[in-house]
Design a protein that fits this description.
binds copper (II) ion; ten-stranded mixed sheet; mainly beta; 150 residues; single chain
């Protein structure tokens, strides 16, 4: 798991000169759900709008947790939701908005033990895009929304 973070950091270094493109992406509704004290992972959500004329890809998220991954949610033949690590990231097509939302794509903050996400607090993170480079964001930690399976 260390490799993943190192790889992302290496990419950050390589991409620093591309920061000029940051205005091409609009990042909105950046929030994360508060977690129970015993939870090992928490979800982060947002909408990303690509206002440029070229596709971009969210290839990584860096934050102060042991591991941060990009996940999607898939349902198996029995309708059970499973999260899947998207190693290639999320493509944000030119001119389109991609939503990271509960039950779908999300950022997974992992290894939370003794460091839960607390409602009212914030989580600073850096989104890493293939073309736009690094974009700093702040996740507002909010109460977990009601889900159908509680
Ligand atoms: Cu997940």
């Amino acid at each position: 798991m260390k490799m993943t973070k190192l790889a992302v950091l290496a990419l950050l270094t390589l991409m620093a000169p591309a920061a000029w493109a940051e205005t091409a992406l609009k990042i909105e509704n950046v929030k994360a759900f508060a977690t129970a004290p015993t939870a090992m992972a928490g979800g982060g959500f947002m909408q990303i709008t690509n206002t440029s004329g070229a596709d971009d890809t969210l290839i990584g998220v860096v934050a102060d947790f042991p591991r941060v991954e990009i996940h999607t949610t898939e349902f198996d033949s029995e309708g059970v939701a499973r999260m899947k690590h998207l190693h290639d990231g999320i493509v944000i097509p030119a001119g389109e908005t991609v939503a990271l939302e509960p039950g779908g794509l999300h950022v997974m903050f992992m290894g939370l033990r003794d460091n839960p996400l607390v409602e009212g607090e914030t989580v600073d993170a850096t989104l890493v895009f293939e073309n736009a480079g690094e974009i700093p964001v702040t996740f507002d930690v909010v109460k977990r929304e009601m889900t159908h399976n509680h």
